[in-house]
Amino acid sequence: MSRLVALIKKEFGQIRRDKRLLMSLVVPPTIQLLLFGFALNATVDHLKMGVLDLDPSPQSRDLIANMTESGAFRLANTYFSEDQLGQALERGDLEAGLVIPYNFARDMERGRQPDVQILLNAMNANTAAIAQGYAARVLQSWSQVYSQQGGVHAQYRPIAANEVSRKGNVLMHPAFLFNPGLVTSWFIVTGALGVLLVLNGSIIASAALVKEREAGTVEQLLMTPAGTGEIIVAKITPVFLLLCITILFATALIKVVFGVPFRGSFVLVLVGAMLCVLSGIGIGTFIATFTKSAQQAQLMAFFVNPPLASLSGALTPVEAMPHWMQSLTVLNPIRHFGIITRSVLLKGSGFTAVWPHMFALAAFTAVLLTLSVMRFRKQLA
Amino acid sequence: MRRVFAQMRKELTQIVRDRLALVLALVLPLCLLMLLGSAVSLTVSGLPVVVQDLDDTPASRDFIDAFRASLTFHIVSWPSGRQPADAFLTNTARAALVIPEHFGRDMARGMNTEVQLLVDATDANTARLVQGYASQVVSNYRPAAAPVKADIRLWFNPGRDAKKFYAPGSFVMGLSMFPALLAALAMSKEGEQKTILQVYVSSISAHEFLLGKILAFALIAMAEWFLSLILLFTYFGLHFAGDPSVFIVATILYAFCVAAFGSWVGAAIPSQAAAIQVIAVGGFLLTFLLSGLIFPVENIPASLRWISGLVWSRYYIEIVRDALLRGGGWPAMWFNVVMIALIGGVFYALGWKKLRRMQLSI
What we know:
- The complex is a heterodimer.
- Chain A has 14 helices and 5 strands.
- By secondary structure, chain A is of the alpha/beta class.
- Chain A folds into 2 domains: 2-41 and 181-378, no CATH class; 47-156, abc type-2 transporter like domain (abc type-2 transporter like fold, 3-Layer(aba) Sandwich), CATH 3.40.1710.
- The longest helix of chain A has 32 residues, at 184-215.
- Chain B is an alpha/beta fold.
- Chain B folds into 2 domains: 2-40 and 161-361, no CATH class; 47-141, 3-Layer(aba) Sandwich (abc type-2 transporter like fold), CATH 3.40.1710.10.
- Chain B has 14 helices and 5 strands.
- Chain B has helices spanning 2-17, 19-39, 58-68, 86-89, 103-109, 124-141, 162-192, 196-201, 206-234, 245-268, 272-290, 302-308, 312-326, 329-361; strands spanning 47-53, 73-76, 95-99, 113-120, 149-155.
- Classes of the chains: A alpha/beta, B alpha/beta.
- Chains A and B meet through helix 2, helix 4, strand 4, helix 6 and strand 5 of A and helix 2, helix 5, strand 4, helix 6 and strand 5 of B.
- Strand 4 of chain A pairs parallel with strand 5 (149-155) of chain B, so a sheet runs across the interface.
């Protein structure tokens, strides 16, 4: 035990003098968290809409006003022919187009049900899906309100319709739980936290291990009576403790800057974050046993990190991935930590809901560290 | 000119003999494209939904079947005694549909009935999509007679296929990362191992040296572009939407731009490990966050958006998406081509300045 303490003391002494490392514990995570939280935003609003009104009438103007004042779309320009509108969409000047046909008002009054055409730039499937929903709902509510005012054929007026022929409608009332304001950044920052902890943990841990290797002092360490396990535990202890400071710092940032509610037990999140850091450190030490120099370790991280970050459900929903990939994400620590933070912070779930994910994180750490200890001696050969 | 080609040949030979570099240059971008192109998407399907049917009549079951038929929702069982919102706490469901008592009776009487949809809005974007899909399901269940009919036409990607949007983005990410990485490694190696001194004593000028390097890695970028394009055309089912000439011109300029970026980083930082980190920030992080790869650039707050105006991959992503989906051609994209050329020129000038200064300082 005293051996371990002595080794840990040595590592602490080394790390304390490494100013660049200490900086890298605070500065990059802060910048990354802010960038992720502010730059990644899926909100769909103020889409540029071009209007082609072939029937300038009070009705058409009212529809245009409703469409463009909804917040989802804004009036960018008006056009006088289909070609102009189409070209503007192709040039990317517009995201959406609204075409009101000839005799729009007259057809409404006669009960002929005019077709209003809405063109959407669907290159971005997500924007298009949401904009489609907006457009349909705006048109629906407009025509409901309008049919009560008159100016449409009697058959569409709810009051005038015959008692027997009237069909009941299903009215749906959606309620958004946990995030009624639909703040996108809450989802992103709670996911990005896991990405940061794993990426920084793995980079710092592999750097700490590889440094010994590069300096050629690893043989000296192995000659001491300390076992391989002790060496690795001593190596990662200071890294782990320092990363715990990063955890506190990052969670404070999430709370203060992004206003994420802390509905569940904070201790649970902290324990989850520590386990997440540990599995990140596990990845780092495992990478370090494969590499001979800092440059190689960096390159390995280059291969491992982008897939790890993007196949985690941290920034995009897991449900949007193909099925075979969804089952692969079970092997990703970031995914488990993302579920923990979102369940506990946003929904207030308790231990019973998140323990499988805690267990998974602990299991990753155990497996990766065991593998690293097993490989540590072999790497010298 | 002869010396430029000699320098280029030397670089290419070095890469062909280095197996790790070759894998980096040609295989990894393809893997990344496959992986990210199919993984990154925001359009969910098969979302678990629990139903609380307090009516339990043929009419309510018929209504639930409308949800069951949709690809977006996947109805999971939930004990009727428990609150449906509890299913969110354990992540069993993402939405809950509550059908009140007398649903069937009200429908039969021709009265309006209300149902509630509870949505787990932890993920705001998915919540919005769920609301949109659910209201489409509901309005198609009993189409109300509306005085106006909406014809919504989706242009450029009528199937709303997310892969067609994200695959070009991942393609650009691969192209921004790997050639730049290789160029930076090659350049900083010269500094790290002091072989740069040999360059200085030779008769090659800074321009020739830099151009040779850049040309070599631009060629690798073009090879990578070609291989990735095959994957885009076959696996992702994309094709040229219009005139490909702007795409080809932009690609040549972009290959030059990323190679010049890598060479500049390598010349400025004579340490391979540190150079890799800079490329990770410039090639990966900037592309990932500030180029509109996943989320539209317009959504970035204005205080940060100006940075994305300097991110070279942002312009190229727009060109690739335009060439493969929209087909706007030169009138839509000329500005982006100019910006790529401009940024590439700046990187070249910076690299050249660094090289000259290195020559003087040693």
